[in-house]
Amino acid sequence: MDIAAQIGAVKRQVGDRSVVLRRGYVAEPEDVWGACTERERLNSWFLPVSGDLTVGGRYQLEDNAHGEILRCQAPRLLQVTWEFGQAPPSTVEVRLKAVKGGTMFELEHSGLDDEQQWDQFGPGAVGIGWDLVVLGLGVHLAGFKHPEGWESSDEYYKYLAASNEAWRAAYEAAGAQPNVAAAAAERTLAAYTPSR
Description:
This protein has seven helices and eight strands. The protein is α+β, with helices and mostly antiparallel strands.
């Protein structure tokens, strides 16, 4: 994998307790929508999902977040609450737009109101996770899967480090002091790579 190209394909923006990722895919919006909303497809590239996958229903990602489906306007808008651990509930919104050559995918995770978490890790704590999702979606849309053992490979750790650096830069571009952004990034990478 060309890690620099994969990292560079994503535009990252940090807002007031929010992160936004944008990436173009060479796939029709209906295909990207299906990959993000159909249970079988989600199970194959993201995480096993259970629950009532309709507006007002509740979903559960295996060993991960859960929440309520707030809005679903195929094939362009999906909005859910995101409840994970002890953090206050937040909101994830996926927006798809047809563009020349495919689809512009935009994901916004807002309402990241755990001040202690944000102060300690900055946007990278959730940003790296969403970078992995955006990468996995691209691999899936291209008809591939990550190789067995990818999550313990050197390539995986290099990708995490590159994502972490991209989020550090986005945090600084959003107005964080360089030393604050660097310290948050250092703590985030240590949390994602405890065995390294």
